[in-house]
Design brief:
Radius of gyration: 24 Å
Strand order of the largest sheet: 1-5
Structural class: alpha+beta
Number of strands: 18
Number of helices: 19
Helix content: 25-40%
Strand content: 5-15%
C-alpha cells in the first residue's frame, strides 16, 4: 500500500457517505425497493438491526442483470451477448456493445466503464458493514433476529467475494481493499494491483467464510439474497476461470483439479437441497423455456433482482419486434443460429458461398429450403425466426411482412429466451416479473465436464454423462464415443454456447478460452427472406478483436492518472 497527498483513484469510494433506509418498505415490496434516507452517523446506523440490514441491502444493487446500462445515467441498456458472437445491437447510444464490435474502445471511453467505480463502491459499503458488525444488536430475545444478524454477516462476505470475482473477470489483477477507508481523512490511499493468485485466494476466503453463516434457502420474501449454495456456485465458476488459458497459460493441472472438485461439490450440494435440472414441461411451455420464466424453477440456484429494469419489462421491449410494439434494438445473428445442431447431432452448415447461400453439412440432414426444421430443441426456445409462432401469428420478416423493418437493416431474428409471450407491449397487459438467473444447475454440470476433461488425458464416462444429460433435454443424441480430449473440449465449448445463449456467459467464456481473437474477429451474418420465401445470409458487419489488448478491459484512464503511477494499466492499453 502507498499513500499520496492528492486525489486518489478511490476518491469516489472515499467520498461515498453512509446512507441507509430508515423507512422500511411494506411486506408486499421486495427488500431492494427501499429508498435511501437522510444521512446519519455510523453508530446510529448499526445500532439498529433493521437499519443495518437496509444498509447492506444496497450492496445488492450492482449485481449484474440480463441487461447492463451503458453508463451511470442508464440512458440505454444492452445484453452482453451483442458484444460477442451471439447477437447484434442494431441501434443504441454511446458506450454500448457496438464499441466492442468495432474495436472503438479505449481507457478514456469504453462500455461498462462505470462498473470499476460501482463495484468498488459496493465493496466499500460491505467493508463498512463488516467494520461495524459488532455494533449490531443481537436481540437474543428473538431467535429469528439473532439468525438474521448471522445471515447478514454471511451475505456481506459472499457479496464482497462476488464483486471481486466480477472485477477479476473484467480486469484480471485489481487492488484488494478489505478495510473501509473513511471519508474526510487527511490522506487518500492508493493500492497497487494484487496478483491473480492473491486475488483468487481472497475471493475464496470470503466465499468460504460467508458460506458458514448462510442458509440453504430463503422464503419468497427474501428471494434474491445469496445463500450457501450461491457461495459454492461462485467458487465453482471462479476456479473454472482461474484454470482457463487466460489466467493459466502454463496449464497448471492442479487448478483444473480444484475446478473439478468445486464444481462437483456445488453440484452435489445443490441436488442434496432438492435442486434438479428442469426436465418437465408445463402447459405449452417446454422444460428449458420454463427455467427463464418461472421465479422458483428447480434449476435456479441464485437469481438477481434490481429496480433497474430487472423484472423483464425492458427486455420484452428491447428485443421485441416493431410489429409487436417492441423496439427491436437487439437480436441473434446467423452465427449463433448455425451453432444449433440438427437432430442428427451435427452442425447444419460448413460455411457460405460468395452469394450468401449456405454450404450444407451433408451429415446433418440440413435442408437449405427449410433451415429451421429438425434443430436442437433449445433453438426453438431461445430464438424467434421467420415462420415461428408468436403472439397469435407467424413471424414474418419478408418484404411487407408484419416484422419486416424498413427504417434500417436488421438481423431478422428475435430473442425468445426470457421473453413473455402474453405481455402486450402496446397496452402493458400480461406483464409478469422474471428474475435474471446468475447461476443454475446446468452450469455446474458443464463446469464439471470441462474441468475433468482438461485434467484427464481423455474424456471418461463422467465427462460424457455431464454433457449428455443436457443434450437429452434438447432432443439430441449422445456425443460420439471415443472423442479425444481436444474433440471433447470443442464439444463442451459448443454445448456451453447454446445452453447459455444470451445469459452473459459467452462474452467471458471466449475470453477465458482465448478464442475471442477468432470468433469475435471476423464477419458475421444475418438472414434475408425474399418475397418468394428464399433465404440468403448476407454479411451483417465486420467484428474487430485485438488479441494484444482486448482480452482484458482497460482501467479507466482517470484512475490511472489520479494514482500518480501506483495503479498500472493493462497490457496494450
Amino acid at each position: 500500500m502507498q499513500k499520496r497527498n492528492k486525489q486518489g483513484y478511490f476518491q469516489a469510494i472515499l467520498l461515498l457517505v453512509v446512507s441507509l433506509t430508515l423507512t422500511l418498505a411494506s411486506c408486499s415490496k421486495d427488500y431492494l425497493e427501499r429508498s435511501p434516507s437522510d444521512l446519519i452517523d455510523e453508530k446510529k446506523v448499526f445500532s439498529n438491526l433493521n437499519n443495518a440490514e437496509a444498509f447492506l441491502n444496497n450492496a445488492y444493487r450492482e449485481i449484474p442483470q440480463l441487461v447492463y446500462r451503458n453508463d451511470n445515467s442508464g440512458s440505454s441498456f444492452f445484453n452482453l451477448g451483442s458484444g460477442t458472437d451471439e447477437s447484434a445491437q442494431m441501434w443504441g447510444h454511446h458506450l454500448t456493445t457496438m464499441d466492442f464490435n468495432n474495436g472503438n474502445w479505449n481507457p478514456v471511453s469504453f462500455p461498462l466503464f462505470w462498473t470499476w467505480q460501482s463495484y468498488y463502491q459496493a465493496i466499500r459499503r460491505i467493508n463498512l458493514f463488516l467494520k461495524n458488525y459488532e455494533l449490531i444488536p443481537e436481540e437474543v430475545s428473538s431467535q429469528t433476529s439473532s439468525s438474521r444478524k448471522n445471515r447478514m454477516l454471511g451475505e456481506a462476505y459472499v457479496l464482497r467475494g462476488y464483486y471481486y470475482f466480477l472485477l477479476y473477470s473484467m480486469w484480471g489483477k485489481v487492488p484488494i481493499l478489505t478495510n473501509p477507508i473513511l471519508p474526510g481523512g487527511a490522506e487518500n490511499i492508493y493500492l497497487e494491483r494484487s496478483s491473480i493468485d492473491v486475488l483468487v485466494a481472497q475471493i475464496e476466503q470470503d466465499l468460504l467464510e460467508g458460506e458458514k453463516h448462510l442458509p440453504n434457502i430463503y422464503s419468497d420474501a427474501d428471494y434474491g439474497r445469496v445463500t450457501s449454495l450461491a457461495a459454492a456456485s461462485i467458487r465453482s465458476r471462479l476456479w473454472l476461470y482461474f484454470a482457463s488459458p487466460l489466467s493459466n497459460p502454463s496449464n497448471d493441472a492442479a487448478r483444473w483439479e480444484k475446478a473439478e472438485t468445486f464444481a462437483k461439490v456445488a453440484k452435489e450440494k445443490a441436488e442434496l437441497q432438492g435442486h434438479l435440472l428442469s426436465l418437465t414441461p408445463s402447459g405449452n411451455r417446454k422444460a428449458y423455456e420454463l427455467i427463464f420464466l418461472e421465479i422458483n424453477n428447480p434449476e435456479t440456484l441464485w437469481a438477481s433482482f434490481s429496480p433497474n429494469n430487472g423484472d423483464g419489462h425492458y427486455w420484452d421491449n428491447w428485443g421485441g419486434s416493431l410489429g409487436q410494439g417492441g423496439w427491436y434494438g437487439e437480436g441473434p445473428i446467423q452465427d449463433l443460429v448455425d451453432a444449433y445442431e440438427t437432430k442428427l447431432g451435427e452442425l447444419p452448415v460448413l460455411g457460405y458461398n460468395a452469394n450468401g447461400t449456405p454450404i450444407a453439412n451433408p451429415a446433418s440432414g440440413f435442408d437449405p429450403a427449410k433451415p429451421f426444421e429438425n434443430r436442437d430443441d433449445r433453438f426453438y426456445q431461445t430464438i424467434l425466426y421467420h415462420g415461428a409462432s408468436w403472439k397469435g401469428r407467424l413471424v414474418n420478416v419478408s418484404p411487407g411482412g408484419a416484422d419486416y423493418s424498413t427504417d434500417k437493416p436488421r438481423v431478422n431474428y428475435f430473442w425468445k429466451k426470457y421473453m413473455l409471450e402474453q405481455h402486450n407491449l402496446y397496452t402493458g397487459n400480461g406483464m409478469a416479473q422474471r428474475r435474471f438467473i446468475l447461476f443454475r444447475l446446468s452450469e455446474l454440470y458443464l463446469n464439471f465436464a470441462e474441468a475433468r476433461n482438461e485434467r484427464l488425458s481423455s474424456p471418461d464416462a463422467e465427462v460424457y454423462a455431464s454433457v449428455n444429460v443436457l443434450r437429452a433435454r434438447a432432443g439430441l443424441p449422445n456425443l460420439p464415443t471415443n472423442l479425444t480430449k481436444l474433440e471433447m473440449r470443442d464439444r463442451i465449448q459448443r454445448e456451453r454456447r447454446v445452453e447459455f445463449a444470451m445469459e452473459n456467459h459467452r462474452f467471458f467464456d471466449v475470453r477465458r478460452w482465448k478464442i475471442a481473437e477468432i470468433v469475435d474477429n471476423k464477419q458475421v451474418r444475418r438472414i434475408n427472406v425474399s418475397s418468394s420465401g428464399e433465404f440468403t445470409y448476407p454479411i451483417w458487419g465486420n467484428r474487430i478483436f485485438d488479441r494484444s489488448k482486448h482480452y482484458l478491459f482497460p482501467i479507466p484512464q482517470t484512475e490511472i492518472e489520479k494514482s500518480a503511477g501506483i495503479l498500472s494499466q493493462n497490457e496494450g492499453w
